[in-house]
Amino acid sequence: MPPRRKTRQVDVGGVKIGGNAPVALQTMTAGYTYEVDKCIAEVQKLAQAGADLVRVAVPKKEDTEALPHIIAASPVPIVADVHFHYQRALEAVEAGVHKIRLNPGNIQDRKQVDRVVAACRERGVPIRVGVNEGGIVERRDKDVRAAEKATLATSYRENLIRIMLDKIAEYLRIFDENDFHDVVISAKSIDPTLVIDVYTAISQRWDYPLHLGVTHAGPPDTGRIRSITALGTLLANGVGDTIRISYAADPVHEVEDGKELLCCLGLRSRTEPELIACPTCGRIEVDLFKLVTDVRSKLAHEIDIPVKVAVMGCVVNGPGECEGADVAIFAGRGKGIIYVQGEQKATVPESEMLEALLRECRVFADRVRRGEAELKGTQLHIQPPDPLPRKDGSLPLSVVK
């Protein structure tokens, strides 16, 4: 992959954003911030799942009044999401929040914006300025809005990107005039290709760190495709310093999928087991789907180090397809062959495959903890076993010459 784009760096409660820091993963609580105990529980759950930063909404004063309690109990920095009411931003800064998400365009009075920037500068609190596709068109003046829509209609994509860039430039001028530079930029859209284009344009024009996201992505089953399309493309090209995958669902799923994306791109180290499995095909002779589901569930609860585990339903192609796994099983008709880092360990009947595989995983994990073994993460040369015959004694068709 291309090298990461060089940016300025900001400090968000000890988490570095930009520069040579790792890409940070963040999400947002779904509950009401003023419900302190519930909010704290949600923040802790999201942090446990792997979030580096958690954002909370503060539309009311009772929300900012809850912030000191939430910040004190949070294991990760807290970001306050502010819209329309500059007082909420000032209250959040006073409460000790670690970062502000602010849209200067939603605050009419420039003096109020200046007060927020001054407060953040005094306390060393960075500001993320967000420009979303749905929030940059005029909403109050109907004539202006109609004119904007007419302009966009002539060449929607190009004009929308231009408007987003112009709006960012306008906001950055405000910060520059206030001698404030701890800024993070975001520019989101529901269209993944537009997200790719606008962030690429931003990265070529400014050196501020970028927060990546696709807005209104929808539920996880469709939202993850939209999000990964855009964020994966940008990150693979060196663009992006912090990300949020947004779903209309429990935000813990945002964290889980964000972690997987960063791990797949080599931008984050795994801290839990990795499971790989072969897809369905006509060679499968065991209940592979149930085995994979059971293995995944057990690994999540029993293994706390990043062991790479492979579950394959074919002893013919399985060994070659999962080279690099620490522990693997290749299943045939009624049997499974277990390998540990390329060494064949056991052949077990189908009824014992799950427990035998987990036993080898536990033993291997214990060896790693004691320093007697290392996680490979590299290619292992596995000698394929002799094909398991069918019950009638014949070989699978895939090995019949």
Write up what this structure looks like:
The structure is a single chain. The protein has 401 residues and is of the alpha/beta class. The protein has 2 domains: 9-264, Dihydropteroate synthase-like (TIM Barrel, Alpha-Beta Barrel); 274-399, 2-Layer Sandwich (Sulfite Reductase Hemoprotein, domain 1), CATH 3.30.413.10. It contains 12 helices and 15 strands. It has helices at residues 36-49, 61-73, 86-95, 110-123, 142-154, 156-177, 192-205, 220-236, 252-264, 288-302, 318-321, 353-369, and strands at 9-12, 15-18, 24-28, 53-57, 78-81, 99-102, 127-132, 183-188, 211-212, 242-243, 274-277, 308-312, 327-332, 335-340, 343-349. The strands form 3 sheets. The protein has an 8-stranded parallel sheet with strand order 8-7-6-5-4-3-10-9. Strands 11-12-13-14-15 form a 5-stranded mixed sheet, with helices on one face. The longest helix is centred in the middle third of the chain and has 22 residues, at 156-177. The model is unreliable at 378-387 and 394-401 (pLDDT under 50).
